[in-house]
Design goal:
transport, 3-stranded antiparallel beta sheet, ATP hydrolysis activity, about 280 residues, phosphate transport, Rossmann fold, alpha/beta, about 30% helix, globular, ABC_transporter-like_CS, AAA+_ATPase, binds adenosine-5'-triphosphate, 10 helices
Length: about 280
């Protein structure tokens, strides 16, 4: 018997459900990412229409499989992509404090990088003294008074929980520190200009478990005074230290919510597949 058209046995793969838009937040925001897209100079669209709140003085983790756009999104927040010609931003990243659009044409990328500090995967201290590493951002801010710089360097090193280890060798080379100490020094360097947001791009992936635990403790402490956004491949880390988690896939923000909700009852099937280790 010839099957009728309606009885065909062929199946087509169901399209994945659309991303879930973040729910309105009741807690104070530090910034809002609105309808944000990013295009690399070769025309590749790495971020697609992302809307995401960034909670004030909380830790937001960005997770997702390799190549989903985590680092691209993070680097957009402090205009790192401006260092390469031809890259393009669309949309807005608004700082709540004064309404500045960080990716707008009027925003000076150098000033944005003081308001939004960044620490990378591999510790990258300048080949200078410990003191000069931390003072660097203050000098960019135009601060020249020695006493002011000394006080700010001490405060930043204390905030980064490394003061006790370096206070007697501030003029020694940063390169003589251990990897974990170098990473905390880089955090101090980012903190010295007193940024509103601290971006951390897989800050512990080059560190051993003890140095990792120190940085994780530090991040939680820091969130009392500065907003933190962290990219991590380590889901236990995201679950341990963040208040909100953003799951990205193929350049889209698929799901955003309280970290405990994302890890225990994700709403989107792609989030569930990722956190249960089925891909990525
Ligand atoms: N300079 C570049 N020019 C063009 N495309 C790029 C560039 N850098 C990254 N991409 C592409 O943009 C997409 C997002 O990359 P991105 O590094 O942001 O992903 P990721 O989620 O951080 O990955 P990983 O976890 O592996 O670090 C990828 O498809 C990547 O190939």
């Amino acid at each position: 018997m010839t099957p009728k058209a309606t009885e065909t046995t062929e199946t087509t793969a169901a399209a994945p459900p659309p991303p879930i838009k973040p729910a309105p937040e009741s807690e104070p925001l530090c910034a809002r990412i609105e309808n944000f897209s990013f295009f690399y100079s070769n025309g590749m669209q790495a971020i697609k229409n992302v809307d995401m709140p960034i909670l004030d003085r909380k830790v937001t983790a960005i997770i997702g499989p390799s190549g989903c756009g985590k680092s691209t999104l993070l680097r957009s927040l402090n205009r790192m992509h401006d260092l390469y010609p031809g890259n393009r931003y669309e949309g807005r990243v608004i700082l709540e404090q004064d309404g500045e659009n960080l990716i707008g044409p009027e925003a000076d990328p150098v000033v944005v990088r003081l308001r939004v500090g960044m620490v990378f995967q591999k510790p990258n201290p300048f080949p200078k003294s410990i003191f000069e590493n931390v003072a660097a951002g203050l000098r960019v801010r135009g601060i020249k008074n020695r006493a002011v710089i000394e006080e700010a360097v001490e405060t930043a090193l204390k905030r980064a929980a490394i003061w006790d280890e370096v206070k007697d060798k501030l003029h020694g080379s940063a390169n003589d520190l251990s990897g974990g100490q170098q990473q905390r020094l880089c955090i101090a360097r980012a903190l010295a200009p007193n940024p509103e947001i601290l971006l951390l791009d897989e800050p512990t992936s080059a560190l051993d478990p003890i140095a990792t635990a120190k940085v994780e403790d530090l991040v939680q402490e820091l969130a009392e005074t500065v907003t933190v956004v962290i990219v991590t491949h380590n889901m236990q880390q995201a679950a341990r230290i963040s208040h909100r988690t953003a799951f990205m896939y193929l350049g889209e923000l698929i799901e955003f919510g309280e970290t405990s909700q994302i890890f225990t009852s994700p709403k989107h099937p792609s989030t569930e597949s990722y956190i249960t280790g089925r891909y990525g």
